[in-house]
Amino acid sequence: MASTATTVDPRAGAALERLGRWLDNRTVLSVLFMLPAASLLLLFLTYPLILGVWMGFTDVKIGRPGVFIGFENYISLFQDGVFLLSVFNTIVYTVVATVLKFGLGLWLALLLNHHIPLKAYVRAFVLLPYIIPTVLSAIAFWWIYDAQFSIISWALTQMGLLDAYIDFLGQPWNARWSVIAANVWRGIPFVAICLLAGLQTISPSLYEAAALDGANSWQRFWHVTVPMLMPILAVVLTFSVLFTFTDFQLIYAITRGGPLNSTHLMATLAFQRAIPGGQLGEGAAIATAMIPFLVGATVFSYYGLQRRKWQQGSADD
Amino acid sequence: MTDAVKEVKADATVTDSTGMGYLQTVPRRLVTLYLPLSIFLFVLLFPFYWMGVTTFKPNDELYNFSANNPFWVRNPTLANIEKLLFQTDYPAWLVNTMAVSITATFLSIFASVLAAYAITRLRFKGANTVGLLIFLAYLVPPSILFIPLATIIYGLGIYDTNWALILTYPTFLIPFCTWLLMGYFKSIPYELEECALIDGATRIQILRKITLPLAIPGLISAFIFAFTLSWNEFIYALAFISSSEQKTVPVGVLTQLVEGDVYHWGSLMAGALLGSLPVAIFYSFFVEHYVASLTGAVKE
Known about the structure:
Chain A is mainly α. Chain A has helices at 2-8, 10-23, 26-55, 72-78, 81-112, 119-126, 128-131, 134-144, 151-158, 172-200, 204-212, 217-245, 249-254, 266-274, 280-306. By secondary structure, chain B is mostly helical.
């Protein structure tokens, strides 16, 4: 490239070479290489994050710029029964769904860790709920939970276990359990496949050694599997808690927060107040109110479990 | 226990990788392994089966469980799919979703490759901090960002266009892809690049001719994961798009196919099924890459 240019015009060739050398400078190249990612993230992630906190302190509405009103949004939110209910719902939803996802996901991972025929296919099918767009599978759950044509109610009445159809989405607690079940259904594959990857790194000789020392299967699970899984468990738990806490799609598709706001999560309430309701400031305040919970949950699940890392003998990382 | 020890000694062919599975008897395996596994598979896959069955059912079968076995279709019909394709904006939603997902994915991978290379190989001052910040960016959920982002999108004049989504999806794609590719780049021996440097290659030549070809499995993983994440995205598409023909499949199915209190379950399920098929097919070709990227990102 440079040599052909030299034959045409030596000065242009020299300039091109200088440009080439300048481009090969580590600092210049680093800046150039970081530019696309950094500009996109700064403009569409960092800036909105700060703007969102600011908007929480203003009374901005759709089509009308707001003025700074201090903590007024937060004060009115803490006297707002719907907001407090949504905080309660979010905590119940996150805690119950996470416990179930990890209990069942770990069980499934342990099952998949056995030698089973067609293992690759089984694993591929297990992951299916995770890759199918959440909203689309949520619509399937909506139909499964239909008050009149629910296939679950129908099957149970046919088996003689039930007299009347279950009103899945009409009663507050029924609706909460229903959306939690849908969330667990979607979350199990992710947990199971990640933990399976962790299980596969545990050397079988550890189990054999434990068995020779007289450990029964429960002791082998508790004293070999669990500590060895802890690092990966901590990461998966952090992600899972974070995404369950801020869940939006599933609730919006199945119940839209009803009945009587009993399934409203903080994210769905923020959307409802901000976009259809037009109260951008109030919505931003609700969204900002999630941040302390998120930081707390992340610190708790990550560092709470990482504490045990020294047991695997990696003190320095 | 002593029996087990004897067995280990007797059966010298037992390799390290089989572990202690041979200690389990067949009936025991049936109850503790195959039974719970089948229940898991049934529960995890049933909603898809139900989606498929509902799609092909005519209305009289759909709402009459007593005369027909609801688990099977007696007179399959394509009416629901036909209605979806010819009486709604569904084809436009499919095109939008495809266009947005592919453009956002390519944009993110381009930015991520450069960023990951700069962080792992150029090792500029503060590279580790930048790497950590990018990981933290992945932990910022869209539910917190969509309200301020909506005002930014509106201010940029791209509200209700595909660009609103193409430019915002990278906020969760770039952190993920960069993190994934950093792991791949680190696994490529640095000596290869040193050789090329000594031979007089420029950094850009090294990236193009040495690092990228070696990182192809990583690039494929990142591409697949980014594509499915974009196809899945909901909250931005719901908040930044208002006119029906600009919507993506998940948003369109949920907001346009429900008319008042009447739910056309047949066409709703058809919409869900058709919207899921492209990702499912795509996924079936690259399962291994998908699993690798999922677990690779977590293990880092």
